Amino acid sequence: MLDIRPATPADVPTILRFIRELAAFEREPDAVKATEEDLLRDGFGETPYFKVLMASHDGEAAGFAFYFFQYSTWTGSPSLYLEDLYVTPKHRKHGLGKALMRRLAGVAMAAGCKRFQWAVLDWNTPAIGFYESIGARVLPDWRTVRVDGEALAALATR
Questions:
Q1: Percent of the chain with pLDDT over 70
Q2: For residue 115, is pLDDT > 90?
Q3: What ranges in the chain are assigned the alpha helix state H?
Q4: By residue range, what is the domain housing residue 105?
Q5: Predicted pLDDT of residue 138
Q6: pLDDT tens string 86-114
Q7: How far apart are CA 158 and CA 49, in angstroms?
């Protein structure tokens, strides 16, 4: 049986485990610096910066969708941004990924979003195929741009 529900503070250890598993899959196992305290503060505190949907299969935690809202100046409306989608290898091919995406699309529509977007690594062809199968378009002309760490601090002080 498949179940999808909003995460609670009690889910934070599982959320962090899923984040670490996803980072290992994405060939960046040492990149995760987030702690349980960070997730509790930033997702379940007074001003949450993100939301999480938890998926379970036959009563076992099986995956999650980690998302937040942003604003599209082009559409003049909020957008839902999916930061992470992860289903454990054991629970893949049971429809959990599609169920999470369908639920997120419903969340986006209910919030008045005209856009639901995310990024995917160019080598992750199974994910790209999955996303295209549910109607998503991969935008080849756009590149992710990031400033972090010391470069961010330097930019802020220039």
A1: 100
A2: yes
A3: 12-25, 36-44, 96-110, 125-133, 149-157
A4: 2-157
A5: 94
A6: 999 999 999 999 999 999 999 999 999 99
A7: 27
CATH number of the domain bearing residue 39: 3.40.630.30
Report if pTM > 0.90. yes
Structure tokens that stand for 42 in this block: 């930033």
- Identify which of 55, 78, 54, 53 has the alpha carbon closest to the alpha carbon of residue 67: 53
Q: Is 29 left (phi over 0), alpha (psi -120 to 50) or beta?
A: alpha
Structural domain count of the chain: 1
Residues in CB range of 86: below 8 A, 6 or more apart: 18, 19, 21, 22, 25, 63, 64
| pLDDT at position 143 | 86
pLDDT of residue 37: 98
Task: Please give the Cα distance from 35 to 10 (Å, whole number).
Answer: 14
The residues annotated as belonging to the active site are 131
Q: What is the number of helices (H) and of strands (E) in the chain?
A: 5, 5
Question: What is the three-class DSSP state of 103?
Answer: helix
Nearest to 62 by CA among 129, 107, 17: 17
